[in-house]
Specification:
The protein is an all-alpha fold. The chain has 2 domains: 62 residues, no CATH class; 40 residues. The chain is built from 6 helices and no strands. α1 crosses α2 and α1 packs across α3. The protein is extended and about 50 Å long. The chain starts with a helix and ends with a helix.
Length: 119
């Protein structure tokens, strides 16, 4: 149990540092995104080992749909703001879905080819 709390604390620390960067440097990128970029940077540079956050990360990925509940509730409470903008919203959702699917497919193909060439 303590291991999970420590791993979660490391992820929260990266997120907090991202928020700190956002507020202190007035960067137009949200703090949570900056925090995840910092976490990626720490992993790529070796300052942080994957094993140090792997268990909590796997748990969070396994339960990922629950993290979308606050966003869905936010959309429901902001329903009046979305009135009259449904066509633009549907267009954005459809286009972004195709972009995400294409990027995911290309990334997967590159990783599969890389893995086959390493074997």
């Amino acid at each position: 149990m303590i291991k999970y709390l420590i791993q979660f604390g490391i992820i929260l620390l990266a997120s907090f540092l991202g928020e700190l960067l956002y507020t202190s440097l007035d960067i137009p990128i949200p703090g949570n995104i900056l925090g995840m970029l910092l976490l990626l940077l720490f992993l790529l540079t070796g300052l942080l080992k994957l094993s140090m956050i792997e268990d909590v990360s796997n748990f969070m990925l396994k339960h990922l749909p629950f993290f979308f509940i606050p966003a869905a509730v936010g959309l429901i409470t902001s329903f009046s703001l979305l009135e009259g903008k449904w066509t633009a919203l549907v267009f954005i959702v459809v286009i972004s879905t195709f972009i995400v699917a294409a990027v995911t497919g290309i990334t997967t193909q590159v990783l599969i080819k890389r893995r086959k060439s390493d074997e």
